[in-house]
Design a protein that fits this description.
The chain has 392 residues and is an alpha/beta fold. It contains 13 helices and 13 strands. It is globular and about 60 Å long. The model has no long low-confidence stretch (mean pLDDT 94).
Length: 392
């Protein structure tokens, strides 16, 4: 009979990390046949140029390792995109690293630029991947509360936390709140970063999902911020290819050089043929494609938020991304997890407990839903929630 490992199974890095509520609710949804509006798996179809260019890339033999920071064609396309959208002049040879999704970009960045024990600031509500990856890297995540009514920047709260921190994570448009940081908010964050010598790591994966005539603001474009900003984004959401894992980061060479080393060690490279297909799609899709995303998803948002209002679950209407935090206090459950399970079991619709995005009690009256679904799925969710509301 073999003996168990004497020192235990888990490393200390993961000892306190458990499966996320997002994954747990997805599994339970599968078991119960629920409509999964919990996990941000966009089920709308990818744009045709993405599909059309995949098989040709495979057939052309693009099936080997690429350069660690991505193929030249994709880096050139990304540099062109950043110039077109944000007037950022990025050198595709030294200032872009293609990564295994934005998650790979974030992990490589904090590993390369932060030391164990460094404090890293993130806004609450936060995205769990930022929190847990920081813990595994040995960092000390420190939450900055936002204004409770609209999840906007609380400058005083940020100022109080900034001294002595190494870095700050700015996720805009934000998951899960849907807040889109304004120019004034970004300028305030930039001022604090420069006065306290903070590295700024942005997560801009939802950059094209912005509503109500608002615009996505690039932190790297703010005066004095290019030198201290790592801009992270990708095409999982924009092209509805979450499983392809094509992300990237842009930063000055003194930052991309160490990040590239870690990216090479962790991941070697992003999938070769997928890089070619994404590059071809970026080259061929014009500005109207991206403006249509905002229009299409604003309509989905309006439809779903009206549904939530109608069934007695008032939403915090998001300005960006494709999630909505809704108030479930009327259900009468003792916490958010219990409320999410009730909605799954009684209504057949899956959300994520708001407590997954907060460290205090603010999230216990909230559930997050994802509305990045096709019309048929949203219609079925509408039917189920209205039937549930009628029976209450």
């Amino acid at each position: 009979m073999s003996q168990q490992l004497g020192r235990g199974i888990k490393s200390t890095r993961v000892a306190d990390i458990v499966q996320s509520d997002i994954r747990a609710m997805t599994q339970r949804s599968l078991e119960l046949g629920g409509i999964n509006l919990g996990q941000g798996v966009c089920d709308t179809p990818p744009p045709q140029p993405v599909i059309d260019n995949l098989l040709p890339a495979v057939q052309a033999g693009y099936n080997s390792y690429t350069r660690f920071d991505g193929i030249e064609r994709l880096r050139l396309a990304l540099a062109g995109k950043m110039k077109r959208d944000y007037d950022l002049h990025v050198n595709p040879e030294t200032e872009i690293v293609v990564t295994l999704g934005t998650t790979g970009a974030f992990a490589s960045t904090i590993t390369a630029l932060c030391n164990p024990g460094d404090r890293i600031l993130m806004f609450e509500p936060y995205y769990g991947y930022h929190w847990n990856t920081s813990l595994i890297a040995g960092l000390e995540p420190d939450l900055v509360p936002t204004n409770p009514e609209d999840f906007s920047l609380n400058i005083d709260a940020l100022e109080a936390k900034a001294k002595g921190a190494r870095a700050i994570v700015v996720n805009t448009p934000a998951n899960p709140s849907g807040h889109v940081f304004s120019l004034q908010e970004m300028q305030a964050i930039a001022d604090i970063c420069q006065r306290h010598d903070l590295l700024c790591i942005t997560d801009e994966i939802y950059e094209y999902f912005v509503y109500d005539g608002l615009s996505h603001i690039s932190m790297a474009k703010q005066p004095g911020m290019w030198e201290r900003t790592v801009t992270i984004s990708g095409y999982s959401k924009t092209f509805s290819i979450t499983g392809w894992r094509i992300g990237y980061l842009a930063a000055p060479p003194q930052l991309t050089a160490p990040i590239g080393i870690v990216n090479d060690l962790y991941y070697a490279c992003a999938p070769a043929p997928l890089q070619y297909a994404v590059a071809a799609a970026i080259e061929s899709l014009g500005p109207e494609f991206y403006s249509n995303i905002a229009s299409e998803y604003q309509a989905k948002r309006d439809r779903f938020c009206q549904l939530l209002q109608d069934v007695g679950l008032p939403p915090h209407i998001p300005s960006g991304a494709y999630y909505v935090l809704t108030d479930v206090s009327s259900i009468g459950c003792k916490n958010a997890r219990e409320a999410a399970m009730l909605l799954l079991e009684d209504a057949g619709v899956t959300g994520v407990p708001g407590s997954a995005f907060f460290q205090d009690q603010r999230g216990e009256s909230l559930v997050r839903f994802c509305f990045a679904k096709d019309d048929e799925t949203l219609a079925l969710a509408d039917e189920r929630l209205r039937q549930w509301a009628e029976k209450r």
